[in-house]
Amino acid sequence: MNYFEIAIQKKATSSKSEINFNKAQEFFFKKEWDSTLVYSMKQLNSNADIETRQYCHYFRGYSLMMKGLYKQARIEFGLINKSFQYYYLVDNNIGILFYFEKKFEKAIVFFLKAEEQILDHNDESEIADIYTSIGICFLYLKQYTKAESYFKKDELTNPKQVTKSVIRSYINIANLYYLQYKDTQAIYYFKKAYTLSKNIKDFKVKENTAFNMAVIEENRGNYKKALVYRKESAQWTDSLNNQNKIWAVADFEKKFAVTQKQKQIKVLQVENELKNTQRNGFFFIAIGLLLILTGGVYLYGQKVKNAKTILLQKNKLDELNATKDQLFSIVSHDLRSSVNALKTSNAKLSATLETKNYDELHQLIIQNSTIANGAYSLLDNLLHWAMLQTKQLYFHKESIHLYSIVQQIEYNYKPLLLDKAITFENSVSKNIFIYADLDSLKIVLRNLLDNAIKFSNEKGKISFYTQETTPDFCDLIIEDNGIGMNESTIKELLQEGELLAKKSGSEIIGTGLGLQLCKQMIKKNSGTLTIESEINKGTKMILSFPKTIV
């Protein structure tokens, strides 16, 4: 607990009559931001003293910042008087707001103001955090010398005993050298962070340092050592998951014990009541009848409940069977169409070989390849959809360099892009790492790029680029200037459980299985999918994934 949190508790103790303030600070510590905003505003609307108002404005500013309302947060922080004892925290938070908005020069100005004031408070943890923030801002501005000086200050400020803050300092310094291609210095600090992580119990830090060492050895080409570090990182990931499970079980056992104790108390109360009424036979008869009646009502209620559950399960099963039948019907139609087209094309190919018309022969070969690729894509999507439905598909989330994956997908689809003379633009930020399952991410991107090519005109353009709307998530946009779609089509595509596209006249547009597969895999990776489109102007597929936390 830092000095400011201690000061808040002292203020609450001395102001017990201020109910709204006490509730506001209680919800502030619980990180329940909406409740904090409500009770701090109630306190501000009362006749509060100046100091209490300063705390309330701080609660509101911080809560709005945590909710991502940066403009309103800055206004609230601006209402705090500079005479406030902990005004350095206000400057620090305003700096953080500018950092979130990627206005790094402005952020540095406020972090430096906070640095000047905080030195008088001797709060080493807060000072170290400010040094880290300044260093990261200079790092984004590519002012490496200044960044290095503040990271070094952070290292010196941290306590001598091994803590997460010390390891964080070493990782920051290592990343600084890594960006400047000073691999020797970077490796030294990565190793130092890895060695120190063995002395702490935080599994997340251990996982992170082991992963960094794996990347170092991979870059060196020492894949044997890299594999060892990869396994260690995975081991710490499993340990972290197991720890969370143990805490959950402990919490459940605690609740169960309380429930059992309450049940025992209730049983004792009933026994005492029975002992007090043993001489009254009529009372016992009434109790017996009451118990019989309650049991009958309970059994009847359970019977009705079970009947409803069975009916719901039956309806769900009927719906799944109908979906399965419809899926098999459309898939068999598409496969039959593809095989028939391939058969017809092969007949033409044989005839063309006899006439030695090489131009037509070349076109027929391309046509055969397109038909085969379409059938393969349909079967591949069907396989993955079936594995998803039967829960056989394994998901392993890890840190993924998004730019490299998009490059791989572009390479795989180069022939199709060249065939339609489509321009492909990869504008994904090279600094972005997302936390997702690699195989499912590739399946999603392949399907969406395949659709973009399919519905783009010749000499069209397809772009992949990123937007960072929040600190924790990254948006990947896949944009084309093809035929587009209307609002009703978008709603139909995004509808939950909609496995199949509908027929248009007598012609089946497609199974829609690829997009359904994409939606389920994006959801499995804690992401979201939104679609923006206009007829004859093009379509934007917006995928939001969690970023890797360093």
Layout of secondary structure:
Elements lengths: L2 H12 L4 H11 L3 H13 L4 H17 L3 H9 L8 H14 L3 H15 L5 H17 L3 H14 L6 H16 L3 H15 L5 H18 L2 H54 L4 H75 L2 H32 L7 E5 H11 L1 H6 L3 E5 L5 E5 H17 L6 E7 L5 E8 L6 H8 L8 E2 L2 E2 L4 H12 L3 E7 L3 E9 L4
Parallel strand pairs: 2-4
Antiparallel strand pairs: 1-3, 4-5, 5-9, 6-7, 8-9
Helix pairs in contact: 2-3, 2-4, 3-4, 4-5, 5-6, 6-7, 7-8, 8-9, 8-10, 9-10, 10-11, 11-12, 12-13, 14-15, 15-20, 18-20
Please give a structural write-up.
The protein is 70% helix and 9% strand. It has 550 residues and is α+β, with helices and mostly antiparallel strands. A five-stranded mixed β-sheet has the order 2-4-5-9-8. Strands 1-3 form a two-stranded antiparallel ribbon. Strands 6-7 form a two-stranded antiparallel ribbon. The longest helix has 75 residues, at 281-355. The radius of gyration is 32 Å and the shape is extended. The protein starts with a helix and ends with a strand.
